[in-house]
Amino acid sequence: MSESQDFENMTNLEGAELYDLFENYSYTEFTPGDDDTSPCSYSRSDFIKILLIIIYSLAFILSTVGNFLVVLVISYMQRQKSSTDIYLLNLAIADLLFALTLPFWVVFSKSEWIFSDYMCKILSVMQEVNFYSGILLLACISVDRYLAIVHATHAVTQKRHLVGFVCIGVWLVAALLSLPILISPKAFRSHNITVCYENIGAKDNEVWWINIRFLRHLVGFFIPLVIMLFCYGFTINTLFHTRSGQKHKAMRVIFAVVLAFIVCWFPYNLTIFADTLMRVKVISETCKVRLHIDTALGVTQILAFLHCCINPILYAFIGQKFRNTFFRVLIQKGFIKKNFLSTYGMGSSYKSSSGNTSTTL
Q1: Which has the closest alpha carbon to 236: 222, 248, 223?
Q2: Is the four-CA dihedral 319, 324, 328, 334 of positive or negative sign?
Q3: 358 domain-assigned
Q4: Are 170 and 258 in contact (CB under 8 A)?
Q5: How much of the chain, in percent, has pLDDT values that exceed 70?
Q6: Mind listing the pLDDT tens digit for each residue in 164-194?
Q7: Which residue in 216, 198, 307 sits closest to 260, CA to CA?
Q8: Residues with Cβ < 8 Å from 323, sequence gap 6 or more?
Q9: What percent helix, strand, coil does the chain show, rounded to 5?
Q10: CB of 324 within 8 A of CB of 354?
Q11: Is residue 29 assigned to a domain?
Q12: Is residue 58 in a domain?
């Protein structure tokens, strides 16, 4: 058969026949060059899917139980509750709300997005609110500790009604910054499966969304990070010139919480920033680069999601006040006996911390 006859036969094919012709074609059979910008295929192996299911399931269990206990313990503190404890209470609530979204991501990791577009938007907003409220609350804690330790303005930082208004403001700002998520993330078809991801779509929407992303990087991470570095820099310098062991103990939990947040969220934000730079053509978008960024997004997102269950573990291992109050709750509920604290050598620390209003967790 001649080439002209082959071409004529191809042009006479019906739509269904064309579909059958290319049905078994895979992008993975084509290896693009460095300058190629053709779409790439990216699929997770069964091992990765199982690993994600295990990680997200464990994170859900640990975060739900752990943050519920944190909310219970801090709420039980009553008079000795410090301003920082109130901030950490709100942080636990944010992590608890985010943990409730993990079962949906578990199902998504197993196969595809089987829920509605509405659920995709709501769960994405809850994820963003958790992120914004988390870093904004940590920035508030850094300012609170800066004022209390560097400037010794306890009269301001210990007024609960002021701290309550600040927390309300944080939640409102986090909600406002998360509203654009209602527009972009959608459940749509990609590589023959339904996914829940930001569907930028038209060129005008792409420009708008890139601006929103830069706002997220600036307001949602870099500015609060600079505030924390500034405040904790002066706070550490002040602590080095004081012999107050109580203040040093109070800062251990705070430093651990801030460090955990940065370790968990900074790689993910850095990867998102690289993806943004690729969309604005600062980084050339090739199949290889797209594959690397998609892989990095998957790995760093796991680390970011795990953050919701880390803080309760830090409180339990580092926070003396948290442990003592937790044991006090167990004693009053009849789960353990009163001599438990003295038996394990915690009686004196329990007495000293239970009446202390400045020690945080």
Answers
A1: 248
A2: positive
A3: no
A4: no
A5: 71
A6: 899 999 999 999 988 887 776 677 666 677 7
A7: 307
A8: 316, 346
A9: 75, 5, 20
A10: yes
A11: no
A12: yes
Average pLDDT, the chain: 76
Q: Hey, what amino acid is at 53?
A: I
DSSP-derived 3-state class of residue 187 = strand
Most confidently modeled of 148-157, 178-187, 259-268, 315-324? Answer: 259-268
246: number of Cβ within 10 Å: 12
Best CA proximity match to 86, nearest among 146, 147, 152, 168: 168
Length of the chain: 361
Q: How far apart are CA 116 and CA 135, in angstroms?
A: 29
Strands (E), 169-272: 185-190, 193-198
Q: How many domains is the chain built from?
A: 1
Token couple for 262: 């940065």
- Residue-wise pLDDT tens digits, 20-76: 433 333 333 333 344 444 456 556 667 777 888 888 899 999 999 999 999 988 888
Strand 193-198 relative to strand 185-190, pairing: antiparallel
Of 312, 350, 289, 328, nearest to 42 by C-alpha is 289
> Quick one: pLDDT at residue 80?
67
Domain that holds residue 121: 43-320
Q: Is residue 333 part of a domain?
A: no
pTM here is: 0.76
- Give the Cα separation of 254 and 232 in Å (integer): 10
User: Concatenated DSSP letters for 148-175?
Assistant: IIIS--HHHHT-HHHHHHHHHHHHHHHH
pLDDT in the model for residue 36: 42
* 281 dihedral zone (left: phi>0; alpha: psi -120 to 50; beta): left
Higher pLDDT, 100 or 340: 100
Question: Which CATH number is 144's domain given?
Answer: 1.20.1070.10
